TrEMBL record:
Pfam family, one: DUF4383
Keywords: Membrane, Transmembrane, Transmembrane helix
Spans traversing the lipid bilayer: 20-40, 60-83, 95-113, 133-150
UniProt protein name: DUF4383 domain-containing protein
Amino acid sequence: MTSNPTGDPGSTTRTGRHPVQLAAIVVAAVFLLVGILGFIPGITTNYDQLSFAGHGSGALLLGVFAVSILHNLVHAAFGVAGLALARTATGAKNFLIWGGAVYAVLWIYGLLIDHDSAANFVPVNTADNWLHLVLAIGMIGLGVLLGRGLPARRH
């Protein structure tokens, strides 16, 4: 298919994919990459403190974001799910909007819990919290703006 310069919501890019699909593919690929990078010493500092779950994991992705084995697996699974959903424009839109909603909930959760308590089982820190807010806004924004004219879900 050819690109449609009019910006019509039904248009596709030169790859034959709708712009919302391309956005979802990029976002999902980043999540998958982040999940993998969380297991690489050096990219993840304090790697020797990486635990399965809980606030006791001292590992930090890029020296900033709290991670655990569970956290890394969730990122990777979220990325794989996003790539699968991006096969269709409607699926991509849903991944971005509903995934963004999940990150909005995670942002609120991270603000409300005590980071040194058992409730912080993923784990998250302040940097994670603010990244979750940016992801929520960005993903929902991409899904809404690029997915205009597409149904919210298939029937």
